Amino acid sequence: MLHTLIQSPYKTNIPLLTSILKKQDDFLALQDGVLIALKNSVFVDSIVFTSANLYLIKEDVNARGIINNISSDFILISYIHFVSLTLKNKTQMAW
Question: Mean pLDDT of all residues in the chain?
Answer without folding.
Answer: 96
